[in-house]
Amino acid sequence: MDAASGPHGTRLARPAPKVLRYAVAMTADTIERLLRGLYSAVLYVLVPVTVYHLIWRGFRQGEYFERWSERYASYRDAPKAATIWVHAVSVGEVNAAAPLVNALLAMRPDLRLLVTTITPTGSARVRALWKDRVEHVYLPYDLSGAVKRFLHHFQPRLALILETELWPNLLFCCRDRGVPAYLVNARLSERSLHGYRVLRPLIGRALRTLRKVAAQSPADADRFRRLGGQPDRIEVLGNLKFDTPVDASARAFAAAFRDRAPRRPAWIAASTHEDEEAAVLALHARLRRRWPDLLLLWAPRHPERFRAVAQQAVQAGWRVATRRLTQAPDEDDAVFVIDTLGELMQFYGCADVAFVGGSLQPVGGHNLLEPAAMGTAIVTGPHLHNFSDIAGKLVAAGALRVCSDADAVGDALEALLGDADERASMVASGMELVRQGRGALARTLAMVSAELPARA
């Protein structure tokens, strides 16, 4: 024990630094076990709710009735060999992960890649992009037992988790099993940060298990620090969506589509949500009063809305075609519903102006870089908190118009459909911004390359 002199020469015992560090560590471990125990107990109590949720979603989208065993990490086959694991919750995250997964497949074809999602649409996108080149299962619920079974079965050597998937048991179990985990293309809106306030002590500890947080922007990095991440493990690497290549076939498709109706104007309502559908119908009616031959390309966000929007358009008095039935609209069709997955980017190139949904209601918006990369002028509503950094850059570049409500969206669409020069200016600015924004992929690969297993 070290000692120090107290009043009147009294010798006071002072704990050695090692003892202090041990006591603090013991306290931190105790707090972590307590928080994890409480969190896990609540989740196990809520297991019946997960079953109800799968049933409820299944009535809206039949795929939710399938593959329940994966949701609870019950597998019939034998444990796998070592795996590189990428988690992307749904379609948007899978698309963001695509450049990274493609690069890993090209760099290390000897490695097994597992891509997990949570939604069936994400699962379908994985299959469409990579078929059997990667393995796919649903990520199990964040029950400690299920997570441990998942990690034991797939034996990941590296975990690359996309964007904002902060599941405490998942991150703690990766640490306990010695799996290096990275949060890549990481984003955290102010709203999400506020939403984590109840779980912040637990989430903050889980964040500190990560090797690195590769943030999309300085603002995202700051919010991860405020949530509890270690400052020296948080880096700003940019947004992988900038590195999504525009397939030559997508440009060829768009060119062929336009050749079929070279003088017919078209706009696209992309990734719309149910509460935005009435606004889309009203906007199209308004615009067709000025352009009677105007075509609406309509891509609802969720597959269960495909049939509903087609029926609504028919009820509005328009002739409607769908991608599955007719492949392409003819000159008499007023609405063309894109009722397929994975084709949205090429259809952006078929429109003069794009309205990107999830922005007229507080969903937070959807990917704005795809229409920019395809050369389409962009209009949105005001709710863009999930894409605030990209939206700000597009607005500053003059490539995006953000509108306060549906009426203002209509004003912007009408102005842009009537002004080819302004559209061309927005298109040029958007494409240049995308070009300048590339580089996150190379930086991400450099960050994780040391963790890849040695070649056999």
UniProtKB/TrEMBL annotation:
Record field: catalytic activity: lipid IVA (E. coli) + CMP-3-deoxy-beta-D-manno-octulosonate = alpha-Kdo-(2->6)-lipid IVA (E. coli) + CMP + H(+)
Domain 3-deoxy-D-manno-octulosonic-acid transferase N-terminal: 66-243
Bilayer-spanning residue ranges: 37-55
EC number in record: 2.4.99.12
Gene3D superfamilies xrefs: 3-Deoxy-D-manno-octulosonic-acid transferase, N-terminal domain, Glycogen Phosphorylase B
Origin: domain of life: Bacteria
GO MF annotation terms: transferase activity
Family the UniProt entry places it in: Belongs to the glycosyltransferase group 1 family.
Protein name: 3-deoxy-D-manno-octulosonic acid transferase
Native organism taxonomy: Bacteria, Pseudomonadati, Pseudomonadota, Gammaproteobacteria, Lysobacterales
